[in-house]
Amino acid sequence: MMADEAEIRFYRASEKPYGVFSNLYRREIEFEGEVFRTSEHAYQAGKARKPEVKRWLMEAPSPSLLAMAAHGLYYWDVAPGWSKTKYDRMRGVLRAKYTQHQDLRQMLLSTGDARLVESATVDNEVNRLWGEVNGVGKNMLGVLLMELRGQLREEEANWAPMEAAE
What we know:
Layout: E1 7-10, E2 26-31, E3 34-38, H1 39-45, H2 51-58, H3 63-71, H4 82-100, H5 102-109, E4 115-120, H6 125-130, E5 132-133, H7 140-165
Parallel strand pairs: 1-4, 4-5
Antiparallel strand pairs: 2-3
């Protein structure tokens, strides 16, 4: 691993080795008592206002089509307050993904202090919110991953002395 890199860019779930950071990466997670096919599924499940819309989203043939469908929802199909709650939901989803799968957790921790950047190619509002396009964007997925990486590192440091004492 090149953990001392200043920046690690990722986008496609199929990219090695950092595609695992994509929410479209195919790995089941349990979240809020449900099992979801990907972290994208777990995240987008919270966006739907009505159960039938959620069901429709969850039946999308692929994670990328799920994302496209969810981004295209009409205002009245989106859960009230979504713009205020979506980051906390993503935090919870990411915590579930990286604590339920030890290999993914190790991959995240192996990035050291590198800046994690979802580097999208298509320039649109969603890609500039969750990632960057041509260096422009809020990169919220990267920001939340780095935040989680710090928390996991801190948790490991706090647990280590207890394990050694056993």
